[in-house]
Design a protein that fits this description.
The structure holds 2 protein chains of 2 kinds. Chain A has 5 helices and no strands. By secondary structure, chain A is mainly alpha-helical. In chain A, α1 packs antiparallel against α2, α2 packs parallel to α5 and α4 runs antiparallel to α5. Chain B folds into 3 domains: 80 residues; 31 residues; 62 residues, no CATH class. Chain B is 78% helix and 0% strand. The chains are: A mainly alpha, B mainly alpha. At the A-B interface, α2, α4 and α5 of A face α3, α7 and α8 of B.
Chain lengths: 137, 182
């Protein structure tokens, strides 16, 4: 597959579009279909396509296994952190109303950070599992 | 027209499922599984569940096929058939199918306004989420705000799955040597 020029060139055209689409789905989830889960999977599939075309070693220069593990944990921490932050501001766990001056803005911020946490974790988890399989001999 | 489309898609699903049963080459099974997911995604679109369709297309047709492929790179591509206990397998499958068919007779019709899914909190989400959360996509409001605690649990599940896979597959060199000595 690595030596097929058609697959290689087509993928190089597609990878930036896939990554951009992943970001769009991530940050447009409030208005259209999508959100952190879908965006994470789409972003990861772009990176996995790169790993399939260019080989594991080059992919790990872009997004190393270590980075994937750190981001997976920090995404979950970010999500739980939003909950703790709303607790410190005097509301229930994960009640976003208090995160900004008016409740609607607070909801917006809360959803933004929470979805970002989901996206980070899902991207990194998908990549880590893929890396683990390809490393396994 | 919509009924016709759904019946057509559901029959394609059945054909794909039957084809998977008769396949022995795992590569074809993965590809057919991916097609199965894409067909279900189309059905979700027809049912107006675009968020679910999106997830099904990305996870079912995309990532899981890649993960299966990389798993078969480790295990081998052909299914090894064991011929014994065919009767027990047949009885188990028939009983399960009968139980499922019996259970579907109790299910509400699609879009029934009196079904439990519509009468409980759904109306509150549809009527109030605009003024309470303020974003147009109700699915996102439910997922990230009303049911934020559930979603936190889901993310934790995804994270735990990663830890489990890494623990199983990325063993340290010393452990592998101990295994070899055994």
């Amino acid at each position: 597959m690595k030596n097929n020029p058609i697959i290689k060139q087509t993928s190089f055209l597609l990878i930036p579009v896939i990554l951009l689409f992943g970001l769009y789905v991530q940050f447009h989830g409030d208005y259209g279909p999508g959100g952190g889960f879908q965006a994470g999977v789409i972003f990861a599939s772009g990176l996995i396509l790169y790993a399939l075309i260019e080989g594991q070693a080059k992919a790990e220069q872009v997004f190393s296994m270590r980075l994937a593990r750190i981001l997976a944990a920090s995404g979950l921490l970010l999500y739980a952190g939003v909950g703790v932050a709303s607790m410190f501001l005097g509301a229930n766990f994960l009640d976003y109303n208090v995160l900004a001056h008016d409740p609607l803005h607070g909801q917006h911020w809360g959803i933004f950070w929470v979805e970002l946490g989901v996206g980070l974790t899902v991207t990194s988890v998908m990549l880590s599992i893929f890396y683990a399989f390809t490393h396994f001999k | 027209m919509e009924d016709f489309i759904i019946i057509f898609l559901l029959s394609l699903l059945t054909i794909t499922a039957v084809a998977i049963i008769f396949m022995r080459n795992m590569l074809s099974v993965i590809m057919l599984g991916s097609i199965y997911s894409l067909l279900s995604a189309v059905i979700f679109v027809v049912l107006d569940a675009v968020d679910v369709a999106f997830t099904e297309a990305a996870v079912g047709a995309g990532i899981s096929s890649v993960l299966f492929l990389s798993a078969f790179a480790v295990t081998g591509k052909r299914q090894v058939l064991k011929q014994k206990n065919k009767l027990i397998a047949l009885i188990t499958v028939s009983l399960t199918a009968a139980a499922l068919l019996y259970a579907t007779s109790d299910m509400p019709y699609v879009g029934d306004p009196n079904s439990p899914a519509q009468t409980h909190v759904a109306s509150r989400y549809i009527e109030q989420s605009g003024s309470e959360i303020g974003i147009p996509n109700i699915v996102t409001s439910v997922l990230a705000s009303y049911r934020g605690f559930d979603t936190l649990g889901e993310v934790a599940v995804v994270f735990t799955a990663m830890i489990a896979v890494l623990l199983l597959l990325l063993r340290r060199e010393e452990d592998q040597e101990i295994d070899r000595e055994k």
